Amino acid sequence: MVAKKPRVVIVGAGVAGLAAAQRLCGAGGDRFDVTVVEAGARAGGRVLTSEFAGHRVEMGATWVQGIVGSPVYALARDAGALDPDPEDDGGLVPYERMDGFPDRVLTVAEGGAVVDADLVAKPVEDLYRGRSRRAVGHADLGQLPAAPAYQRRNTRRRWRRVEPRRAQSRTDTSADDLGDLDLAAEREYRDFPGDHVTIPGGYYRVVDRLVAALPPGTVRLGLQLRRLEWGRTPVRLHFAYGDAPALEADHVIVTVSLGVLKTSCLGNGKQDAAGAIAFDPPLPQFKREAVARLGFGVVDKLFMEVEAMEGDEGEPPVDFPFLHMAFRAHHVSEAPWWMRGTESICPVHGGSRVALAWFAGREAEHLESLPDDEVVRGVHATLDAFLPSSRWRVKRVKRSAWATDPLFLGSYSYVAVGSSGEDLDTMAEPLPRAEDDGGGHDERPLRVLFGGEATHRAHYSTTHAAYLSGVREADRLLQYYSR
Ligand SMILES: Cc1cc2nc3c(=O)[nH]c(=O)nc-3n(C[C@H](O)[C@H](O)[C@H](O)COP(=O)(O)OP(=O)(O)OC[C@H]3O[C@@H](n4cnc5c(N)ncnc54)[C@H](O)[C@@H]3O)c2cc1C
């Protein structure tokens, strides 16, 4: 008689879910019966590569945050995505920051006065450049001088750019209000050492690499988990659409975003959102409290195809500048409030006619609610305030909408005031806890395991956190069955 294989269902085909599946199917050999159920019509989750105006654009994950030892960098390299052949790639060579960051930016005050960035920003830049150089490649980042954690993280991530700024820290951390960041806990955050790079062939190649390593049919798209009965083994998974039969599993690895978990556990009026899961029985209090305390913010990207109109002063400008905007506290232009938290509009690479602005927090959420023509009007009012004589115009826009998307309900996690790194560990804790079942520690049945970026204490908010969390949960099962 052939022994029955343990059935493992992984919920979510983002980087975490795919990494868990790859590990179970790889290191586990043929020992597990693995299925990945994904509510959406594609794998990748918050990795979403798209095209716009002849460019490859990343709507979600953009950077590999430190290349030394990064599993995501290794996947991109092994997939040939660091040096893609344009012939095989639909001719799409241009990609975000393919030329790194320009040495000089055009810093302009609202109203159009060009500011001498050397006078204002250079000393600060030098200070942080030095500090971050020490951070990059440093074996024990905890020994660095104690700067506010969000700044350190900021400098590690963006040290080639000019001085650390509030808007950048908001997009780096996803916190709407920087006062909501627990700085002590954020100090535990780590990037990998080395450069931060974008992926020429597209971040999706990392996802494709993971999927390709799985047996055909492992990933099942369009299956949205609606109810998870986890009170006894086997665990039963019920799906949203009537004709999808329930599945039974010995173990379920949940990798949905913290935004989806918040809605699933805490309500907040969005329980009917497509991704929300009814846990039956409800998740225990310790888990719900960690879900509630941790922060999950919104970051969006707005891509704009720009063209220069001929002005009164003759020839239009050649290149769109790397524009750094210094808004005044007292508004002196028609730039709308939702543009005022954004400090730069820059070409995705030198000479490109595709410009990019990042948004965070309430401005990002508002941006998601606007029709395209209103977005274009708001950008025009802003460009008129900063480049009054250049007459750049936006032909069309493309933007992300991570807060509105019911399968994500936000962008990435942060440690909010009132939470701590321990909450990230709690997020990762499998269920039931031994005492819930009345069994001894060794009897813990590992019915529901948790992966995803918001379950990694040191690397949360990144793709490598997602990857490492998936591997961690797969290893938990491998270890369980090797006892
Ligand atoms: C704008 C933006 C920029 C970013 N930039 C970077 C960056 O530069 N560098 C970096 O490292 N990281 C970046 N990130 C973060 C990174 O993308 C994420 O941390 C990572 O991709 C998360 O992967 P995950 O597998 O944990 O979750 P997800 O990618 O969210 O995967 C979870 C999956 O679960 C699915 N799902 C949801 N509900 C259900 C359900 N009920 N049933 C079945 N399936 C369900 C979802 O559709 C999704 O596919 C960025 C993210 C955003 C949004």
From TrEMBL:
Keywords assigned: Cytoplasm, FAD, Flavoprotein, Oxidoreductase
Entry GO MF terms: flavin adenine dinucleotide binding; polyamine oxidase activity
Region Disordered, residue ranges: 152-179
Keyword Repressor: no
Cofactor(s) needed: FAD
Cellular localization per UniProt: Cytoplasm
Boundaries of every Amine oxidase domain copy: 15-478
Example of a GO cellular component annotation carried by this entry: cytoplasm
Stored InterPro entries: Amino_oxidase, FAD/NAD-bd_sf, Flavin_monoamine_oxidase
UniProt cross-references to Gene3D superfamilies, sorted A to Z: 3.90.660.10, FAD/NAD(P)-binding domain (3.50.50.60)
Family statement drawn from the similarity comment of this UniProt entry: Belongs to the flavin monoamine oxidase family.
Protein name, UniProt field: Amine oxidase domain-containing protein
Organism: Eleusine coracana subsp. coracana
Lineage: Eukaryota, Viridiplantae, Streptophyta, Embryophyta, Tracheophyta
